[in-house]
UniProtKB/TrEMBL annotation:
Gene3D superfamilies: 2.70.98.10. GO terms for cellular component: cytoplasm. Substrate binds at residues 58, 76, 81. GO terms for biological process: carbohydrate metabolic process. Its EC number is 5.1.3.15. The keyword Transmembrane does not apply. InterPro entries: Aldose_1/G6P_1-epimerase (IPR008183), G6P_1-epimerase (IPR025532), Gal_mutarotase_sf_dom (IPR011013), GH-type_carb-bd (IPR014718). Pfam families: Aldose_epim (PF01263). It is an enzyme of class 5 (isomerase). This is glucose-6-phosphate 1-epimerase. It comes from Brachypodium distachyon.
């Protein structure tokens, strides 16, 4: 379904089995809602988020491209999340997976202004799909369409904001013993300790060469998010905590307690494409009941 939002921009709604659904804002090409069988919202979007240019939408799954982070003359996390995407009316023929209940293909190409800050032609195709079982997948295909032979390099992240009942009751499994760059300690390299990660203060870490699956366990909700990534070596884990939360005008002061970002990414080693080459990066999310024994 295509729906006009209050901000006058368009969003798309994918309907799954029972009460499953996904909402996508054409502004940013950004998933802003993913609901389970019971209609429960699984992603975090700030109550103070704005939904129209020029600021990005605070929450859901922002697409960070052609850069993750802040360097050079590009805006923070690149321009893809600050642009109006369009529905791709003639997507390349791809095998339709019977496990998919509904999907949409979006496309982004650089504007004249984009080419001034990032002088490369590209086609960025994004397939967002809702599975029969309520799982959500995002598949990005980025092609270098430069006609003058120039390769280009970029960094990338699916800046995924999960909704959690209480951050102090959340554990992340799968990143133990991994090396990471700590953004709040001058991007210095450390090695993670040997058991599940818990949260008691601001966290902003880029785990390097992280495993393809990471689990986010919400104790109170007895729910586990399983994050599966392909083509994306790294994983960013971020919670702003109280001080940083207060400093963000599009983020409620106490909202850090109910969100966690786990972001499949390519940060440490940029991706390079020669003209004609295409990169594929995939994110698959499922939310499953956690079989829980106390003190686990
Ligand atoms: O996801 C980690 C991070 O790079 C943090 O350093 C923090 O800046 C966060 O992204 C939010 O960035 P944004 O541009 O969405 O405010």
């Amino acid at each position: 379904e295509r729906v006009k939002t209050a901000a006058g921009l368009e969003k798309l709604v994918l309907r799954g089995q029972r009460n499953c659904s996904v909402e996508i804002s054409l502004y940013g090409g950004q998933v802003t809602s993913w609901k389970n069988d019971y209609g429960e919202e699984l992603l975090f979007v700030s109550s103070k988020a704005n939904f129209k240019p020029p600021k990005p939408i605070r929450g859901g799954i922002p697409i960070c491209f052609p850069q993750f982070g802040t360097h050079g003359n590009l805006e923070q996390h690149g321009f893809a999340r600050n642009r109006l995407w369009t529905v791709d009316d003639n997507p390349p023929p791809l095998p339709i997976n019977p496990a998919i209940k509904a999907f949409v293909d979006l496309i982004l190409k650089p504007s004249e202004d984009d080419l001034k800050v990032w002088p490369h032609s590209f086609e960025f195709r994004l397939r967002i799909a809702l599975g029969q079982g309520g799982d959500l997948s995002l598949t990005s295909r980025i092609r270098n369409t430069n006609t003058d032979g120039r390769p280009f390099s970029y960094t990338f992240a699916y800046h995924t904001h999960f909704s959690v009942s209480d951050i102090s009751e959340v554990r992340v499994e799968g990143l133990e013993t991994m090396d990471y760059l700590d953004n709040i300690k001058g991007k210095e390299r450390f090695t993670e300790q040997g058991d599940a990660i818990v949260f008691e203060s601001e966290v902003d870490k880029v785990y390097l060469a992280a495993p393809s699956k990471v689990a986010i366990i919400d104790h109170e909700k007895k729910r586990t998010f399983v994050v599966t990534k392909e083509g994306l070596p790294d994983a960013v884990v971020w919670n702003p905590w109280d001080k940083k939360a207060k400093a963000m005008q599009d983020f409620g002061d106490a909202e850090y307690k109910h969100m966690l970002c786990v972001e499949p990414a390519a940060v440490e080693k940029p991706i390079t494409l020669k003209p004609g080459e295409e990169w594929k990066g995939r994110l698959a999310l499922s939310a499953v009941p956690s079989s829980y024994c106390s003190g686990q």
